[in-house]
Amino acid sequence: MITNRVRQGLTLLGMVLLITQLSGCDKGVAQNAAPPPPEVSAAPVLIKPVSQWDNFNGRVEAVQSVQLRPRVSGYIDAVNYREGDEVRKGQVLFTIDDRSYRAALEQAKAELARARSQASLARSESGRSEKLIGTQAISREAWEQRRSAASQAQADVLAAEAAVDMAQLNLD
């Protein structure tokens, strides 16, 4: 059976449980005290002019940026904008010293004139050789050489025209 000591321990445990349950069932709810109102400071109202802007030191970085690349290289003669200005596509921002490009254009035009002169001479010789080949006055090889020279001279004219166009593009 249950010993006396165990019985006393169980009785004591039961009483402790009963007391804790009864203390939790207290009907009187303690009301929390309201916190004190916060302290605030007040300043007197002043009427004075308000600044519309302030000056600050800082660093501004643009949302969008572009990289400028020239079509040609050279020394800058003029800067055609002010820092901070808005610029549009195609607007001339810098003027580059164009003396070397003007000289290159003139050289290309002279080369074109020389090529046209050579082409005219080659066409003339080719035309004469056409008449002479019909009468067997020149060899077939000489006739083919003159025709080839005329074709090559015409190709030289086309190349010189392209060089003039490129020099004009670089100048613009």
Automatic annotation (TrEMBL):
Q: Locate the coiled-coil region(s) and give their ranges.
A: 98-125
- GO CC annotation: plasma membrane
Pfam families, per the entry? BSH_RND (PF25917), HH_MFP_RND (PF25876)
Protein location: Cell inner membrane
List the membrane topology term(s).
Lipid-anchor
Tell me if Ion transport is a UniProt keyword of this record. no
In this protein, which residues make up the domain named Multidrug resistance protein MdtA-like alpha-helical hairpin? 105-172
Keywords linked to the UniProt accession: Coiled coil
Gene Ontology MF terms in the entry: transmembrane transporter activity
Q: Write down the InterPro entries for this protein, in alphabetical order.
A: MdtA-like_BSH, MdtA-like_HH, RND_pump_MFP
Entry's Gene Ontology BP terms: response to antibiotic
Which stretches make up the Multidrug resistance protein MdtA-like barrel-sandwich hybrid domain?
65-103
Chloroplast among the record's keywords? no
* Domain of life of the source: Bacteria
Q: PANTHER family, alphabetically?
A: ACRA/E-RELATED COMPONENT OF DRUG EFFLUX TRANSPORTER, RESISTANCE-NODULATION-CELL DIVISION (RND) MULTIDRUG EFFLUX MEMBRANE FUSION PROTEIN MEXE
Family from the record? Belongs to the membrane fusion protein (MFP) (TC 8.A.1) family.
Q: Which NCBIfam families match?
A: RND_mfp
Q: What is this protein called?
A: Efflux RND transporter periplasmic adaptor subunit
